Amino acid sequence: MNSNVENLPPHVLRLVYKEVSALAADPPEGIKIYPSEEDITELHTAIEGPEGTPFAGGIFRMRLVLGKDFPAVPPKGYFLTKIFHPNVGHKGEICVNVLKRDWKAELGLRHVLLTIKCLLIHPNPESALNEEAGRLLLEDYAEYESRARLLTEIHAMGGPGGTSGAPQDPNDGPQPKKHAGDPTKRAGPSAAAVPAALGNGASGASTTTSNSSNSSSTNNVAGKKKADKKRALRRL
């Protein structure tokens, strides 16, 4: 969705910046704020699933988009984390009265975020965007709870079988492959091979020393025989 920064009057941008800064410094309980320095008209958040609901333990990423007529017109809300909820459409769009007929410019973004969190506690099947979830909520709550819990575990939780709904750390996930010249990746003798090589070297040195000793002994014997032969000739 395109930015509306250029479409909003300067005084509205100042008000939005002030409110977003206040939200980031003092967010509502269970909600984290991730303001964008590049686009103040799009606010990313992460909402903790309330206890006592099928969403407990999950982290649900969401964004609010401020249109060119804000604050005369309410912002639009979207869940970025998949969720099984009557008031959340298949594309993440959120249906709640505060984002429609009950909107007032003086309500502010904090009120919107708190209302959406409350929607996780008290779904409204009468204005369902997800008709199946709305029907199950009314007719078979156990099945609704089971389905909602399953999606929470799959999409909104970290650990085995799930991916955290919180914005990912840039260091998470697959990392770029190291260059072939990386000294840590260069081939070399293994730890086991080094002692073996040293052992072979020591053995080789020992063999060489032994051979030299034998050769020296042989030379001494030959020299002694020559000397004895010379003395015998002199006697003749």
Structure description:
The protein is an alpha+beta fold and 236 residues long. It has a domain at 5-156: Ubiquitin Conjugating Enzyme, CATH 3.10.110.10. Helices cover 41% and strands 9% of the residues. The protein has helices at 10-25, 108-121, 131-139, 141-155, 193-235, and strands spanning 31-34, 42-48, 59-65, 76-79. A 4-stranded antiparallel β-sheet has the order 1-2-3-4, with helices on one face. Helix 3 (131-139) packs across helix 4. The radius of gyration is 39 Å and the shape is globular. The chain starts with 9 loop residues before the first helix and ends with a helix. Keywords: ATP-binding, Cell cycle, Cell division, Nucleotide-binding, Transferase, Ubl conjugation pathway. Residues 187-222 have a biased composition (Low complexity). Pathway: Protein modification; protein ubiquitination.
Summed up:
GO terms for molecular function: ATP binding; ubiquitin conjugating enzyme activity. This protein is of the alpha+beta class and 236 residues long.
Task: Please render the helix and strand layout as text.
Elements: H1 10-25, E1 31-34, E2 42-48, E3 59-65, E4 76-79, H2 108-121, H3 131-139, H4 141-155, H5 193-235
Antiparallel strand pairs: 1-2, 2-3, 3-4
Helix pairs in contact: 3-4
